Amino acid sequence: MYLDASNHLHGLSLRAMECPHCRNHAQLKPTAIPEFAALSSARPLMAGIVAHCDACHSPVFFRYRIKEITARRIDFYATPQEVEKPEERYNYNYLSTEVAAAFRDALGCYRNGLSRGFTTMCRLTAQIVFEELGESGRLKVFDELDEIARIADLDAALVQKVRNIIFDTSPESLELAAELDRATLAVLLEVMKDLLHQTYVRPGRLQKILRMRQYFADPDDDVVEVQQDEKVTVLKTSRSAGTN
After folding, report:
1. Do 60 and 104 belong to one domain?
2. What is the pTM of this model?
3. What is the SS3 string spanning the chain?
4. pLDDT class for 221, splitting at 50, 70, 90?
5. Are residues 105 and 144 in the same domain?
């Protein structure tokens, strides 16, 4: 891919991808490119190109490394660096307020490429979980991690790195965690999502469904759902008693 002296960009190919704004898988088309004269004068190491999403028409920014600058053309490396990443979404409804706040910050760090912050917030999330559930909860999470490793057929060395982040409280382990590559951090992300799902979301949903089933099995009782602090509380009252 190169930019000629007439400001014509050649060889640009933007693949269809998930838009960071609307999250649709859409084609991206370039709408703004840098000027040849400005790049020739400043001679930066990178240059930006703005594309727009065919689905929502929002601008999406990409950064390309410059390979060579000559009098007639500026050559770029073909693979762009994605600057805007889609927000990591998660259902916080069944998490406690403290766990939800910590994990929300962890996802924010992950989206922005802050590996040290991401691993630190994952550890903090796990520590809050252990404080809420006690030693039995800690052992349950430990067993759940082994189950995830078995189901996903994860490498033993990779599992140990993830285990160190979640269970090891020494500062040294976080220093090592800062050197983890993107692929390992992605595994940590999915492991944390699944652990929280198994620990909070699945029991919460099951309890809610069973309470509703009990209500329909006993038509003399009424069920009212109250949303408080991102958790659903089911209040059961007697119809026959005429109470609310």
Report:
1. no
2. 0.64
3. CEEECCCCEECCCCCCEECCCCCCEECEEEEECCCHHHHHHHCCCEEEEEEEECCCCCEEEEEEEEEEECCCEEEECCCCEECCCCCCCCCCCCCCHHHHHHHHHHHHHHHCCCHHHHHHHHHHHHHHHHHHHHHHHHHHHHHHHHHHHHHHCCCHHHHHHHHHHHHCCCHHHHHHHCCCCHHHHHHHHHHHHHHHHHHHHHHHHHHHHHHHHHHHHCCCEEEEEEEECCEEEEEEEECCCCCC
4. low
5. yes
